[in-house]
Protein backbone atom coordinates (compact mmCIF):
# COMPACT_ATOMS: atom_id res chain seq x y z
CA UNK A 1 0.00 0.00 0.00
CA UNK A 2 1.38 3.40 -1.00
CA UNK A 3 1.46 5.99 1.76
CA UNK A 4 1.47 9.70 1.02
CA UNK A 5 3.47 12.10 3.17
CA UNK A 6 1.83 15.17 4.71
CA UNK A 7 4.14 17.43 2.68
CA UNK A 8 3.00 15.76 -0.55
CA UNK A 9 -0.64 16.22 0.45
CA UNK A 10 -0.08 19.93 1.20
CA UNK A 11 1.76 20.38 -2.10
CA UNK A 12 -1.06 18.66 -3.95
CA UNK A 13 -3.62 20.94 -2.31
CA UNK A 14 -1.56 24.05 -3.15
CA UNK A 15 -1.18 22.97 -6.77
CA UNK A 16 -4.90 22.16 -6.88
CA UNK A 17 -5.67 25.69 -5.68
CA UNK A 18 -3.39 27.01 -8.41
CA UNK A 19 -5.37 24.94 -10.87
CA UNK A 20 -8.59 26.59 -9.70
CA UNK A 21 -7.00 30.03 -10.17
CA UNK A 22 -5.78 29.02 -13.63
CA UNK A 23 -9.26 27.77 -14.55
CA UNK A 24 -10.67 31.16 -13.50
CA UNK A 25 -7.99 32.88 -15.63
CA UNK A 26 -8.98 30.75 -18.64
CA UNK A 27 -12.62 31.87 -18.28
CA UNK A 28 -11.68 35.56 -17.83
CA UNK A 29 -9.38 35.44 -20.87
CA UNK A 30 -12.23 33.99 -22.93
CA UNK A 31 -14.42 36.96 -21.97
CA UNK A 32 -11.59 39.36 -22.86
CA UNK A 33 -11.14 37.77 -26.27
CA UNK A 34 -14.86 38.17 -26.95
CA UNK A 35 -14.53 41.94 -26.41
CA UNK A 36 -11.49 42.43 -28.68
CA UNK A 37 -12.10 43.93 -32.12
CA UNK A 38 -8.62 43.40 -33.57
CA UNK A 39 -8.17 39.97 -35.20
CA UNK A 40 -4.43 40.03 -34.42
CA UNK A 41 -5.04 40.64 -30.73
CA UNK A 42 -7.69 37.90 -30.65
CA UNK A 43 -5.13 35.40 -32.00
CA UNK A 44 -2.44 36.53 -29.54
CA UNK A 45 -4.69 36.24 -26.50
CA UNK A 46 -6.11 32.94 -27.86
CA UNK A 47 -2.59 31.47 -27.79
CA UNK A 48 -2.16 32.61 -24.20
CA UNK A 49 -5.46 30.96 -23.33
CA UNK A 50 -4.21 27.64 -24.80
CA UNK A 51 -1.07 27.88 -22.65
CA UNK A 52 -3.28 28.49 -19.62
CA UNK A 53 -5.25 25.34 -20.42
CA UNK A 54 -1.97 23.40 -20.65
CA UNK A 55 -0.99 24.71 -17.22
CA UNK A 56 -4.37 23.68 -15.84
CA UNK A 57 -3.93 20.11 -17.09
CA UNK A 58 -0.36 20.09 -15.74
CA UNK A 59 -1.54 21.25 -12.32
CA UNK A 60 -4.13 18.46 -12.16
CA UNK A 61 -1.66 15.71 -13.17
CA UNK A 62 1.04 17.06 -10.82
CA UNK A 63 -1.39 17.09 -7.90
CA UNK A 64 -2.42 13.46 -8.62
CA UNK A 65 1.20 12.28 -8.91
CA UNK A 66 2.04 13.95 -5.60
CA UNK A 67 -0.86 12.20 -3.91
CA UNK A 68 0.29 8.81 -5.20
CA UNK A 69 4.02 9.62 -4.70
CA UNK A 70 5.01 8.65 -8.23
CA UNK A 71 8.31 10.51 -8.33
CA UNK A 72 9.79 9.68 -11.77
CA UNK A 73 6.94 10.99 -13.95
CA UNK A 74 6.46 13.82 -11.46
CA UNK A 75 10.02 15.05 -11.89
CA UNK A 76 9.69 15.03 -15.69
CA UNK A 77 6.34 16.82 -15.57
CA UNK A 78 7.61 19.51 -13.20
CA UNK A 79 10.47 20.25 -15.58
CA UNK A 80 8.10 20.55 -18.52
CA UNK A 81 5.72 22.78 -16.51
CA UNK A 82 8.56 25.08 -15.45
CA UNK A 83 9.79 25.38 -19.06
CA UNK A 84 6.34 26.10 -20.42
CA UNK A 85 5.78 28.50 -17.50
CA UNK A 86 8.82 30.52 -18.53
CA UNK A 87 7.55 30.45 -22.12
CA UNK A 88 4.12 31.58 -20.91
CA UNK A 89 5.58 34.54 -19.02
CA UNK A 90 7.66 35.56 -22.05
CA UNK A 91 4.64 35.29 -24.34
CA UNK A 92 2.51 37.31 -21.92
CA UNK A 93 5.09 40.11 -21.86
CA UNK A 94 5.33 40.13 -25.67
CA UNK A 95 1.55 40.21 -26.02
CA UNK A 96 1.35 43.05 -23.52
CA UNK A 97 3.92 45.04 -25.49
CA UNK A 98 2.05 44.44 -28.74
CA UNK A 99 -1.25 45.45 -27.14
CA UNK A 100 0.28 48.65 -25.78
CA UNK A 101 1.85 49.45 -29.15
CA UNK A 102 -1.48 48.78 -30.89
CA UNK A 103 -3.31 50.94 -28.35
CA UNK A 104 -0.80 53.78 -28.76
CA UNK A 105 -1.20 53.54 -32.53
CA UNK A 106 -4.98 53.76 -32.25
CA UNK A 107 -4.69 56.66 -29.79
CA UNK A 108 -2.37 58.53 -32.18
CA UNK A 109 -4.70 57.86 -35.09
CA UNK A 110 -7.71 58.99 -33.09
CA UNK A 111 -5.83 62.08 -31.90
CA UNK A 112 -4.92 62.90 -35.50
CA UNK A 113 -8.54 62.49 -36.57
CA UNK A 114 -9.73 64.71 -33.71
CA UNK A 115 -7.12 67.35 -34.58
CA UNK A 116 -8.21 67.31 -38.22
CA UNK A 117 -11.84 67.59 -37.11
CA UNK A 118 -10.96 70.51 -34.80
CA UNK A 119 -9.12 72.33 -37.60
CA UNK A 120 -12.01 71.69 -39.97
CA UNK A 121 -14.48 73.03 -37.41
CA UNK A 122 -12.35 76.13 -36.81
CA UNK A 123 -12.02 76.68 -40.55
CA UNK A 124 -15.80 76.33 -40.90
CA UNK A 125 -16.34 78.94 -38.18
CA UNK A 126 -13.88 81.31 -39.88
CA UNK A 127 -15.57 80.77 -43.23
CA UNK A 128 -18.99 81.35 -41.67
CA UNK A 129 -17.79 84.57 -40.04
CA UNK A 130 -16.28 85.70 -43.35
CA UNK A 131 -19.54 84.84 -45.09
CA UNK A 132 -21.52 86.80 -42.50
CA UNK A 133 -19.16 89.76 -42.94
CA UNK A 134 -19.69 89.65 -46.71
CA UNK A 135 -23.46 89.42 -46.23
CA UNK A 136 -23.24 92.37 -43.85
CA UNK A 137 -21.34 94.34 -46.50
CA UNK A 138 -23.86 93.48 -49.22
CA UNK A 139 -26.80 94.53 -47.01
CA UNK A 140 -25.21 97.62 -45.49
CA UNK A 141 -24.20 99.01 -48.88
CA UNK A 142 -27.74 99.37 -50.32
CA UNK A 143 -29.11 100.24 -46.88
CA UNK A 144 -26.69 103.15 -46.85
CA UNK A 145 -28.64 104.48 -49.81
CA UNK A 146 -32.04 103.84 -48.19
CA UNK A 147 -31.18 105.44 -44.85
CA UNK A 148 -28.94 108.15 -46.27
CA UNK A 149 -31.32 109.37 -48.95
CA UNK A 150 -34.20 109.21 -46.46
CA UNK A 151 -32.30 111.49 -44.10
CA UNK A 152 -31.47 113.87 -46.93
CA UNK A 153 -35.10 114.06 -48.00
CA UNK A 154 -36.25 114.59 -44.41
CA UNK A 155 -34.18 117.79 -44.34
CA UNK A 156 -36.23 119.22 -47.20
CA UNK A 157 -39.73 120.72 -47.23
CA UNK A 158 -42.24 117.87 -47.21
CA UNK A 159 -45.92 117.34 -46.67
CA UNK A 160 -46.72 115.70 -43.36
CA UNK A 161 -47.91 112.52 -45.08
CA UNK A 162 -44.69 112.21 -47.07
CA UNK A 163 -42.56 112.98 -44.02
CA UNK A 164 -44.33 110.23 -42.07
CA UNK A 165 -43.73 107.75 -44.90
CA UNK A 166 -40.06 108.68 -45.06
CA UNK A 167 -39.66 108.31 -41.31
CA UNK A 168 -41.17 104.83 -41.56
CA UNK A 169 -38.82 103.98 -44.42
CA UNK A 170 -35.76 105.25 -42.55
CA UNK A 171 -36.71 103.58 -39.26
CA UNK A 172 -37.39 100.28 -41.03
CA UNK A 173 -33.96 100.50 -42.59
CA UNK A 174 -32.40 101.11 -39.20
CA UNK A 175 -34.24 98.10 -37.76
CA UNK A 176 -32.88 95.91 -40.55
CA UNK A 177 -29.38 97.21 -39.91
CA UNK A 178 -29.70 96.36 -36.22
CA UNK A 179 -30.73 92.81 -37.13
CA UNK A 180 -27.71 92.52 -39.42
CA UNK A 181 -25.46 93.83 -36.65
CA UNK A 182 -26.90 91.33 -34.16
CA UNK A 183 -26.37 88.38 -36.50
CA UNK A 184 -22.84 89.49 -37.34
CA UNK A 185 -21.93 90.04 -33.69
CA UNK A 186 -23.32 86.63 -32.78
CA UNK A 187 -21.17 85.02 -35.48
CA UNK A 188 -18.10 86.94 -34.26
CA UNK A 189 -18.69 85.76 -30.69
CA UNK A 190 -18.86 82.15 -31.80
CA UNK A 191 -15.55 82.53 -33.66
CA UNK A 192 -13.86 84.35 -30.75
CA UNK A 193 -13.21 87.43 -32.92
CA UNK A 194 -15.35 89.73 -30.81
CA UNK A 195 -13.71 92.58 -28.88
CA UNK A 196 -15.00 95.31 -26.58
CA UNK A 197 -14.10 98.95 -27.22
CA UNK A 198 -14.13 100.65 -23.83
CA UNK A 199 -13.96 104.45 -23.55
CA UNK A 200 -15.65 107.21 -21.50
CA UNK A 201 -19.26 107.94 -22.44
CA UNK A 202 -22.48 109.43 -21.12
CA UNK A 203 -25.16 106.93 -20.14
CA UNK A 204 -27.69 109.77 -20.01
CA UNK A 205 -27.15 110.44 -23.69
CA UNK A 206 -27.35 106.71 -24.43
CA UNK A 207 -30.62 106.32 -22.51
CA UNK A 208 -32.20 109.38 -24.12
CA UNK A 209 -31.22 108.39 -27.66
CA UNK A 210 -32.47 104.82 -27.18
CA UNK A 211 -35.85 105.93 -25.83
CA UNK A 212 -36.16 108.57 -28.57
CA UNK A 213 -35.48 105.95 -31.23
CA UNK A 214 -38.34 103.74 -30.04
CA UNK A 215 -40.83 106.49 -29.12
CA UNK A 216 -42.53 106.45 -32.51
CA UNK A 217 -42.96 102.67 -32.47
CA UNK A 218 -44.41 102.78 -28.94
CA UNK A 219 -46.80 105.56 -29.95
CA UNK A 220 -47.86 103.55 -32.98
CA UNK A 221 -48.81 100.65 -30.67
CA UNK A 222 -50.56 103.07 -28.26
CA UNK A 223 -48.27 102.22 -25.35
CA UNK A 224 -46.06 104.49 -23.24
CA UNK A 225 -42.26 104.48 -23.13
CA UNK A 226 -40.48 106.43 -20.39
CA UNK A 227 -37.05 106.51 -18.77
CA UNK A 228 -36.50 106.96 -15.02
CA UNK A 229 -33.22 107.71 -13.21
CA UNK A 230 -33.17 106.64 -9.57
CA UNK A 231 -31.77 108.81 -6.76
CA UNK A 232 -27.98 108.69 -6.68
CA UNK A 233 -27.74 108.15 -10.42
CA UNK A 234 -24.36 108.94 -12.03
CA UNK A 235 -24.26 109.32 -15.83
CA UNK A 236 -20.53 109.15 -16.70
CA UNK A 237 -18.85 105.77 -17.10
CA UNK A 238 -16.17 103.91 -19.04
CA UNK A 239 -17.32 100.98 -21.15
CA UNK A 240 -18.32 99.89 -24.63
CA UNK A 241 -21.07 102.40 -25.35
CA UNK A 242 -22.22 100.82 -28.61
CA UNK A 243 -22.55 97.35 -27.06
CA UNK A 244 -24.47 98.67 -24.06
CA UNK A 245 -26.81 100.51 -26.40
CA UNK A 246 -27.15 97.31 -28.41
CA UNK A 247 -28.24 95.48 -25.24
CA UNK A 248 -30.74 98.21 -24.38
CA UNK A 249 -32.05 98.33 -27.96
CA UNK A 250 -32.73 94.60 -27.95
CA UNK A 251 -34.45 94.68 -24.56
CA UNK A 252 -36.67 97.65 -25.49
CA UNK A 253 -37.47 96.13 -28.90
CA UNK A 254 -38.38 92.87 -27.20
CA UNK A 255 -40.61 94.68 -24.70
CA UNK A 256 -42.42 96.59 -27.45
CA UNK A 257 -42.92 93.38 -29.43
CA UNK A 258 -44.64 91.64 -26.51
CA UNK A 259 -46.61 94.58 -25.05
CA UNK A 260 -50.08 95.28 -26.44
CA UNK A 261 -51.34 97.67 -23.74
CA UNK A 262 -49.93 99.66 -20.85
CA UNK A 263 -46.33 100.74 -21.21
CA UNK A 264 -42.60 100.20 -20.89
CA UNK A 265 -40.30 101.77 -18.34
CA UNK A 266 -36.52 101.96 -18.65
CA UNK A 267 -34.97 102.39 -15.19
CA UNK A 268 -31.36 103.38 -14.47
CA UNK A 269 -29.67 103.05 -11.10
CA UNK A 270 -26.27 102.62 -9.44
CA UNK A 271 -25.95 99.87 -6.81
CA UNK A 272 -22.56 99.32 -5.16
CA UNK A 273 -20.68 100.87 -8.10
CA UNK A 274 -22.53 98.69 -10.60
CA UNK A 275 -24.79 100.19 -13.25
CA UNK A 276 -28.23 98.57 -13.06
CA UNK A 277 -30.53 98.93 -16.07
CA UNK A 278 -34.08 97.59 -15.96
CA UNK A 279 -36.57 97.31 -18.81
CA UNK A 280 -40.01 96.74 -17.33
CA UNK A 281 -43.13 96.09 -19.43
CA UNK A 282 -46.81 95.27 -18.92
CA UNK A 283 -46.88 92.69 -21.69
CA UNK A 284 -47.93 89.06 -21.85
CA UNK A 285 -45.12 87.85 -19.62
CA UNK A 286 -42.96 84.73 -19.86
CA UNK A 287 -43.91 81.35 -18.36
CA UNK A 288 -41.52 80.21 -15.63
CA UNK A 289 -40.48 77.10 -17.57
CA UNK A 290 -39.38 79.24 -20.55
CA UNK A 291 -37.38 81.87 -18.68
CA UNK A 292 -34.02 80.09 -18.87
CA UNK A 293 -34.44 79.00 -22.48
CA UNK A 294 -35.05 82.52 -23.83
CA UNK A 295 -31.35 83.34 -23.37
CA UNK A 296 -30.38 80.43 -25.63
CA UNK A 297 -29.75 80.92 -29.34
CA UNK A 298 -32.78 80.77 -31.66
CA UNK A 299 -35.18 80.13 -28.75
CA UNK A 300 -38.38 82.14 -28.37
CA UNK A 301 -41.10 81.98 -25.74
CA UNK A 302 -43.64 82.78 -28.47
CA UNK A 303 -43.30 82.37 -32.22
CA UNK A 304 -46.19 84.61 -33.27
CA UNK A 305 -44.48 87.89 -32.36
CA UNK A 306 -41.66 87.95 -34.90
CA UNK A 307 -37.98 88.31 -34.16
CA UNK A 308 -34.94 86.18 -34.98
CA UNK A 309 -34.53 84.48 -31.62
CA UNK A 310 -31.04 85.98 -31.33
CA UNK A 311 -31.71 89.24 -29.45
CA UNK A 312 -31.79 87.93 -25.88
CA UNK A 313 -29.06 85.36 -26.58
CA UNK A 314 -26.86 88.17 -27.85
CA UNK A 315 -27.72 90.31 -24.80
CA UNK A 316 -26.68 87.43 -22.55
CA UNK A 317 -23.34 87.02 -24.33
CA UNK A 318 -22.64 90.76 -24.42
CA UNK A 319 -23.37 91.12 -20.70
CA UNK A 320 -21.22 88.07 -19.98
CA UNK A 321 -18.36 89.55 -22.05
CA UNK A 322 -18.57 92.66 -19.83
CA UNK A 323 -18.48 90.40 -16.73
CA UNK A 324 -21.99 91.50 -15.82
CA UNK A 325 -25.25 89.72 -15.10
CA UNK A 326 -28.66 89.59 -16.76
CA UNK A 327 -31.86 88.06 -15.41
CA UNK A 328 -35.59 88.18 -15.99
CA UNK A 329 -38.45 88.36 -13.51
CA UNK A 330 -41.74 87.45 -15.09
CA UNK A 331 -44.75 85.20 -15.12
CA UNK A 332 -47.42 84.32 -17.62
CA UNK A 333 -49.75 87.33 -17.95
CA UNK A 334 -47.74 89.38 -15.42
CA UNK A 335 -45.44 91.41 -17.65
CA UNK A 336 -41.64 91.14 -17.58
CA UNK A 337 -38.67 92.92 -16.04
CA UNK A 338 -35.23 92.37 -17.52
CA UNK A 339 -32.40 93.41 -15.18
CA UNK A 340 -28.85 94.07 -16.39
CA UNK A 341 -25.98 94.71 -13.98
CA UNK A 342 -22.68 95.97 -15.42
CA UNK A 343 -19.43 96.57 -13.47
CA UNK A 344 -18.46 99.77 -15.32
CA UNK A 345 -15.76 102.20 -14.23
CA UNK A 346 -17.01 105.57 -12.97
CA UNK A 347 -15.68 108.58 -14.90
CA UNK A 348 -15.53 112.31 -14.29
CA UNK A 349 -18.11 114.51 -16.06
CA UNK A 350 -17.65 114.67 -19.80
CA UNK A 351 -18.10 117.91 -21.67
CA UNK A 352 -21.50 117.79 -23.32
CA UNK A 353 -21.05 116.90 -26.96
CA UNK A 354 -22.91 119.10 -29.44
CA UNK A 355 -22.68 119.34 -33.14
CA UNK A 356 -21.41 122.84 -33.99
CA UNK A 357 -21.77 124.49 -37.33
CA UNK A 358 -18.74 123.99 -39.55
CA UNK A 359 -16.08 126.60 -39.00
CA UNK A 360 -14.79 128.68 -41.86
CA UNK A 361 -11.62 126.60 -42.03
CA UNK A 362 -13.68 123.42 -42.03
CA UNK A 363 -16.33 124.55 -44.49
CA UNK A 364 -13.91 124.98 -47.39
CA UNK A 365 -12.15 121.67 -46.95
CA UNK A 366 -11.16 119.78 -50.07
CA UNK A 367 -12.21 116.15 -49.53
CA UNK A 368 -11.54 113.08 -51.67
CA UNK A 369 -14.27 110.44 -51.50
CA UNK A 370 -13.42 107.01 -52.96
CA UNK A 371 -16.23 104.45 -53.28
CA UNK A 372 -17.17 102.08 -56.09
CA UNK A 373 -20.91 102.42 -55.33
CA UNK A 374 -22.45 105.40 -57.10
CA UNK A 375 -25.33 105.82 -54.64
CA UNK A 376 -22.97 105.80 -51.67
CA UNK A 377 -20.84 108.47 -53.36
CA UNK A 378 -23.92 110.59 -54.02
CA UNK A 379 -25.23 110.38 -50.44
CA UNK A 380 -21.87 111.17 -48.85
CA UNK A 381 -21.21 113.95 -51.37
CA UNK A 382 -24.53 115.64 -50.55
CA UNK A 383 -23.84 115.48 -46.83
CA UNK A 384 -20.35 116.93 -47.24
CA UNK A 385 -21.55 119.60 -49.66
CA UNK A 386 -24.21 120.73 -47.17
CA UNK A 387 -21.42 121.02 -44.61
CA UNK A 388 -19.67 123.43 -46.98
CA UNK A 389 -16.94 121.06 -48.21
CA UNK A 390 -15.61 120.64 -51.73
CA UNK A 391 -15.71 116.98 -52.80
CA UNK A 392 -13.81 115.07 -55.48
CA UNK A 393 -15.00 111.55 -56.32
CA UNK A 394 -13.12 108.36 -57.19
CA UNK A 395 -14.71 105.06 -58.25
CA UNK A 396 -11.75 102.80 -57.36
CA UNK A 397 -8.47 102.78 -55.49
CA UNK A 398 -6.33 103.65 -58.50
CA UNK A 399 -8.40 106.76 -59.25
CA UNK A 400 -7.99 107.80 -55.61
CA UNK A 401 -4.20 107.42 -55.84
CA UNK A 402 -4.10 109.47 -59.07
CA UNK A 403 -6.26 112.27 -57.62
CA UNK A 404 -4.21 112.35 -54.41
CA UNK A 405 -1.12 112.80 -56.57
CA UNK A 406 -2.66 115.71 -58.48
CA UNK A 407 -4.28 117.68 -55.63
CA UNK A 408 -3.83 118.45 -51.96
CA UNK A 409 -6.73 117.15 -49.88
CA UNK A 410 -7.66 117.94 -46.29
CA UNK A 411 -9.31 114.53 -45.82
CA UNK A 412 -9.68 111.28 -47.76
CA UNK A 413 -12.64 108.96 -47.18
CA UNK A 414 -11.70 105.54 -48.59
CA UNK A 415 -13.96 102.55 -49.16
CA UNK A 416 -12.17 99.27 -48.41
CA UNK A 417 -13.59 96.94 -51.05
CA UNK A 418 -13.07 98.51 -54.48
CA UNK A 419 -12.06 97.16 -57.89
CA UNK A 420 -8.66 97.72 -59.53
CA UNK A 421 -7.09 98.60 -56.16
CA UNK A 422 -8.54 98.07 -52.68
CA UNK A 423 -8.79 100.84 -50.13
CA UNK A 424 -5.90 99.42 -48.08
CA UNK A 425 -3.69 99.13 -51.17
CA UNK A 426 -4.56 102.67 -52.25
CA UNK A 427 -3.80 104.00 -48.76
CA UNK A 428 -0.37 102.34 -48.71
CA UNK A 429 0.38 103.77 -52.15
CA UNK A 430 -0.69 107.29 -51.11
CA UNK A 431 1.37 107.06 -47.92
CA UNK A 432 4.45 105.97 -49.89
CA UNK A 433 4.18 109.08 -52.10
CA UNK A 434 3.63 111.61 -49.31
CA UNK A 435 6.37 114.13 -48.87
CA UNK A 436 6.18 115.60 -45.39
CA UNK A 437 2.46 116.39 -45.08
CA UNK A 438 0.27 113.49 -43.92
CA UNK A 439 -3.33 113.69 -45.09
CA UNK A 440 -5.94 112.08 -42.78
CA UNK A 441 -7.36 108.94 -44.42
CA UNK A 442 -10.47 107.36 -42.94
CA UNK A 443 -12.00 104.07 -43.98
CA UNK A 444 -15.51 104.49 -45.35
CA UNK A 445 -16.68 100.91 -45.12
CA UNK A 446 -19.66 98.62 -44.75
CA UNK A 447 -17.42 95.90 -43.31
CA UNK A 448 -17.97 95.81 -39.56
CA UNK A 449 -15.69 93.03 -38.29
CA UNK A 450 -12.96 93.95 -35.84
CA UNK A 451 -10.37 92.21 -38.05
CA UNK A 452 -11.38 94.32 -41.05
CA UNK A 453 -11.30 97.55 -39.06
CA UNK A 454 -7.94 96.62 -37.54
CA UNK A 455 -6.60 95.93 -41.03
CA UNK A 456 -7.63 99.48 -42.02
CA UNK A 457 -5.56 100.96 -39.19
CA UNK A 458 -2.59 98.70 -39.89
CA UNK A 459 -2.77 99.68 -43.57
CA UNK A 460 -2.05 103.31 -42.74
CA UNK A 461 -5.54 104.70 -42.22
CA UNK A 462 -6.23 107.02 -39.29
CA UNK A 463 -9.70 105.73 -38.40
CA UNK A 464 -12.95 104.54 -39.90
CA UNK A 465 -16.62 105.41 -40.42
CA UNK A 466 -19.00 102.49 -40.87
CA UNK A 467 -21.88 102.56 -43.32
CA UNK A 468 -24.62 103.60 -43.49
CA UNK A 469 -23.12 107.06 -43.32
CA UNK A 470 -24.91 109.67 -41.22
CA UNK A 471 -24.56 113.42 -41.25
CA UNK A 472 -23.83 113.42 -37.52
CA UNK A 473 -20.89 111.07 -38.03
CA UNK A 474 -19.38 113.33 -40.68
CA UNK A 475 -19.93 116.44 -38.55
CA UNK A 476 -18.27 114.76 -35.59
CA UNK A 477 -15.31 113.65 -37.72
CA UNK A 478 -14.80 117.06 -39.33
CA UNK A 479 -15.15 118.86 -36.00
CA UNK A 480 -12.62 116.55 -34.39
CA UNK A 481 -10.09 116.98 -37.21
CA UNK A 482 -10.61 120.76 -37.30
CA UNK A 483 -9.87 121.06 -33.59
Descriptors for this entry?
483 residues, alpha/beta, Helix Hairpins, Heat Shock Protein 90, 4 domains, 5-stranded parallel β-sheet, 13 helices, 13 strands
Number of strands: 13
Instruction: Give, in order, the helices and strands.
Output: HHHHEHEEHEEHEEEHEHEHEHEHEH
CATH topology of the largest domain: Heat Shock Protein 90
Overall CATH class of the largest domain: Alpha Beta
Structural class call reads alpha/beta
How many domains make up the coordinates? Answer: 4
The side-by-side strand order for the widest beta sheet comes to: 2-4-5-7-6
- Tell me the major beta sheet: 5 strands, mixed
Distance between the termini: 126 Å
What is the helix fraction of residues, given as a range?
A: 55-70%
The number of helices is 13
Q: What portion of the residues fall into strands of 2 or more residues? A: 5-15%
CATH architecture of the largest domain: 2-Layer Sandwich
Radius of gyration, in Å, reads 39 Å
Unreliable stretches covering 5 or more consecutive residues: 353-360
- The CATH superfamily of the largest domain bears the name Histidine kinase-like ATPase, C-terminal domain
Mean pLDDT: 80
Principal-axis shape equals: elongated
